[in-house]
Amino acid sequence: MSNSNFTFISDRQKGIIPAISKVFPSAEHRYCLRHIHENMRQKWRGEFLKNLLWKCASATTIPKFESMMEEIRKQDSTLFDWLKQIPPKHWARAYFTGARDKPVITCLEYIREYMMKRILVVHKLISKCDGPLTPNATKAFNTIKSEASQYTVIWNTSNKYQVNGPWSDQRVVDVGQRTCSCRRWELTGMPCKHAVAVNWNMAVNGIEVGIPESWVSKVYWLDTWKKVYQSTVNPINGKDLWIPSTCPTTLLPPKHHKQIGRPKKKRKKAVDELNQGVSKNGKMVRAGNTITCTLCKDIGHNKRTCNGQRQNG
Ligand SMILES: [Zn+2]
Ligand SMILES: [Zn+2]
């Protein structure tokens, strides 16, 4: 199923963009405008251009966005060209989908429509399934069954079975408790290969046991999936037909509380970022610079700390 309901916001660090599109192929990816501006500032400075950038990014419609871009082109065509090469879907609100940044009613309507579409997608999927398990569970259970065929079973005439496998693995299955000593059955709710081997052994010996799937927890059944998605979301009329609320209360925003202390401005750094640029003794290092000794031409120390490494070593 698609992951289109995710949106990522990044500072365009190398590697993040390909990584996100790999893991969430249909997710939206937005760049943090502050970081775009940070890069822009290296070449194009000034409040005026900064404000124009902001106006482009926050324009809610494509024509508005384009007219603001036109303003930029008139001011500085090199900046216009530079901005053009960043796909607008990543930084301009006019090209964003989703409802995160919309008013609350629009946002709720977006979610309601999303649910309607989602239920339809799942219904279509279910109609293509034969059961008795869901497609993913069927796949997993088929693997278990193909492995189970390689096991031999010894019955102790009560509820317990000893199961021997080709990889000298020997486990105990308790059919009464529905457990196996490999613990997979209890943990996943899906019988392990040992339990499936026992199920077949029971069937062969004339014990009425049912298909191995009947031992699989109900959470993996197609019927359960159907039940989860059986409710529907009602379609509703457009806003112009909505009846004004008779509720007499006017909702006011909560009182603004001034927080104690100076507001933090620095971005919170990740753990690995914190250690960057600091040497073992806690002092700052000149990152990226490799020093070369002027005396012995060796790298990694300077002439002050030189003791003729190259000659000695
Ligand atoms: Zn097992
Ligand atoms: Zn040296």
Automatic annotation (TrEMBL):
- Known InterPro entries for this protein? MULE_transposase_dom (IPR018289), Transposase_mutator (IPR001207), Znf_PMZ (IPR006564), Znf_SWIM (IPR007527)
Keywords tagged on the record:
DNA recombination, DNA-binding, Metal-binding, Transposition, Zinc, Zinc-finger
Any keyword Transport? Answer: no
Instruction: Identify the domain of life.
Output: Eukaryota
Pfam families registered for this protein in UniProt: MULE (PF10551), SWIM (PF04434)
Using the record's annotation, list all stretches that form the SWIM-type domain. 161-203
Q: What's a GO biological-process term for it? A: DNA transposition
Q: What Gene Ontology terms describe what this protein does at the molecular function level?
A: DNA binding; transposase activity; zinc ion binding
Protein name from the UniProt record: SWIM-type domain-containing protein
Specify the taxonomic lineage.
Answer: Eukaryota, Viridiplantae, Streptophyta, Embryophyta, Tracheophyta
